[in-house]
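Working notes for the structural subgroup meeting. M.R. asked for a predicted model of this chain before we commit to crystallization trials. I am recording the input and output together here so anyone reviewing the notebook later can reproduce the run.

Input as submitted:
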Amino acid sequence: MRSALLFFFFNILFTQFAFSQDDVLGTDIEQEEVKYNYNKIMLIPYNPAKAFLVQDGTDRQIAQHSEKDLQEIRRRFQFGLNQEVYWKLMSRYDSQNLLLDNSEDGKKDLESFMRIVNYQYETPYSVNEEEQEEKKKSFWENVKSKLKKPEVDETEDPYTTSKYKKPKKNEKYMNVQVKNNEIFEYMSDKYGTDLFFFINMFELKTDYKTCLDLSTKQYAREVTVHFSIFDKTGTQIYGDKIAVTYNSSSNDITKIIQANFPKVADYIAWNLPERKKL
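Returned structure, recorded in token form:
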């Protein structure tokens, strides 16, 4: 009986010691924080009042087909693009989406950005031109290799299927001009962000010079997105644009978003700054 009690007593002591050791080790592990060059990115949407460019009444055709007013069509485009880009950003970094932040602070901070940004056409920019050119080269090679594949996706709708439109070298894009660089430090301190991704402009136009089917008057329609990336000091890291085309006979806004915006987001993701351990 006595030996049994002693065994029970020592067993309890040993168990407590083991757990205390695990706790200490666990605490040590939790304290080992992995640091990266870029931890968090903030997504700033384009300003629909300043940076939604439509030619030839294309948005009116879409509004009529979708049975929605122009304001709703513009809102759907803004939110649809914002969401696709946000998903890609989240796959790389912790992310802050100002357009989807419904808190009072979030709304005020978004308004702060909208008040102090202007836009100006400039030549595409990269803080590391050689590295960025390699990224672009590999992206277009990847697109080209996919086009050569003989497999055909029978589920694709030929009227909504989109294709990349490779820009000409040094073709200008719409860059963002931030009037007060102090906003970067303020937002970085508040949200812990060290990268800022701006969707600068959204363009939608029908290219009547590119006729896809003369008998049915089907033309190429273009979606172009201009974007810029800044660090927390307000220094620009990258600026570019990407265009995709689809058939003008498609006026269903849901299908247009689903067919085109993922391609735009894929190009953006390919050109994001690398996240590296320090």
